Amino acid sequence: MTLQDIGFDHWFAAQTAELGSDGCGFARISAVDRGSYIIHDARREVPAELSGKLAYRIERPADLPCVGDWVTAQWYNNDTAAIIHQVFPRKSFLRRKTPGEAIEHQMIAANVDTAFLVQSCHFDFNPRRLERYVVMATDGNVEPVVLLTKTDLVTEEALETTLAIVRSVTTAQVMALCTITGSGFAALQQTLLPGKTYCLLGSSGVGKTTLVNRLVGQEAFATQAVSGTGEGIHTTTRRQLVVLQSGALLIDTPGMRELGLIGDGEEVDMGFEDIAALAERCRYADCRHAHEPGCAVRAAVELGELPKDRFESFVKLKKESAFYGMSQLEKRQKDKAFGRFVKSVKKRRKN
Q: What does the cofactor section's free text say about binding (predicted)?
């Protein structure tokens, strides 16, 4: 196995001259758990820690290495452990707002080619949550693919209705799967290409770990029995990258309850392609689709061409993204002002 086999393509190779250093090699973060890291250099996986210099330079949690990141590392103790010295720029990423009141990004995974957005046909299906996942993927330059699981728990008519709803939410590819019968898995496996990185995103209990075990071909991760409603019990506790027999790389993630967005609102536009296309016909280029005359988006809602609940979801996500984005900007400005204050105090003390 080589670095190329675990995703080190030409984009990363072009940066090695700048990031390389004597005594160090390149590796990929394959697991993160409460500040502990495991790195993979195509030969082995070993535990790793941040160098003091790297830890000192990190200004915010999103700058810490996450699963999928490429790093420069130095091995020691007979190559059984390593120190991470530098992190490569990210080609793509999956991130969300940190859960709770904190206004920061939380990295989910980096350098992902395709995000599998997993929802159960039975208890979990939620088009509004799916919209958030689509926005998260497109914001990070990641291709979204929707996976509908537990198709055995619904009728064919109900499944067709669910598929129609998904297609009204996103133009992304959608696949229906059943872990009991194996239906849909052959088609899924054909999409998994060697050296490409895929990530599973979804709420707890929708069947992500079962999907991983079936794709790996063994019980790589523990699962628990489902409840009486068909809802699975959450088992994944950390983000982890595994290499499949096909050569594809798969990242499993713990279930996410909160999917807050941070930005200037443009990432929402990318996740709502139908509304973005309508907006191009608005009279004003900066139309907010509120009360402006000549708004093609509101006109589509009134004519029934655009579902009202989808438009309301779009407006809600735009406001949420803009609010947290502005809050984060203000926070950074305050942090910078405080940093300048500390430097000025140190300077006066020296004088």
A: Binds 1 zinc ion per subunit.
10-residue mean pLDDT profile of the chain (351 residues): values are: 92 87 89 88 92 87 92 92 94 80 78 93 82 88 92 89 89 89 89 94 77 73 42 54 91 66 62 84 87 89 88 82 63 56 59 57
Residue 185 covered by a domain: yes
Annotated binding-site positions: 149-152, 202-210, 282, 287, 289, 295
Predicted confidence at residue 212, as pLDDT, reads: 83
Domain that holds residue 105: 93-252
122 neighbors 180 (Cβ within 8 angstroms): no
Answer yes or no: is 196 within a domain.
yes
In a domain, 107, yes or no: yes
Residues 232 and 123: their CA atoms lie apart, in Å, by: 10
Residues making up the binding site for Zn(2+): 282, 287, 289, 295
Q: Which of 87, 113, 135 is the last residue of a domain?
A: 87
Q: Annotated binding residues for GTP, as ranges?
A: 149-152, 202-210
Reference 234, options 118, 62, 136, 111; nearest CA is 118
Residue 341's pLDDT is 54
Distance between CA atoms of residues 325 and 8, nearest Å: 32
H helix or E strand, kind and range, residue 70: strand 70-76
Domain tally for the chain?
3
